[in-house]
Description:
By secondary structure, the protein is mainly alpha-helical. It has one domain. The protein is built from four helices and two strands. It has a two-stranded antiparallel ribbon with strand order 1-2. β1 and β2 form a beta hairpin. It is globular and about 35 Å long.
Amino acid sequence: MEIAILCKQIVQLCHISGELQWEELFKYFVTRIEEGHIEATVREIEYIYGGMGSFNDLILQKNGKMLDTNTELYTLRKALFEVVFQG
């Protein structure tokens, strides 16, 4: 499923930058999708896009410096949004 693939790619980016909370959350999403809980997981993913400190606010950094992978993160975040909300 496309959502799981996107989530796995986001996991990799979060791992590189040390964003452990986001990495673990996206690993959770992958597991839930692979277990067949697709609709519930889609609803959970929808929630991470809103409010302060949301997925939209995530900027990948390492040692206080922005990473070049933010461009890739932006692309993945947009693609995931489109799949989840426009499905």
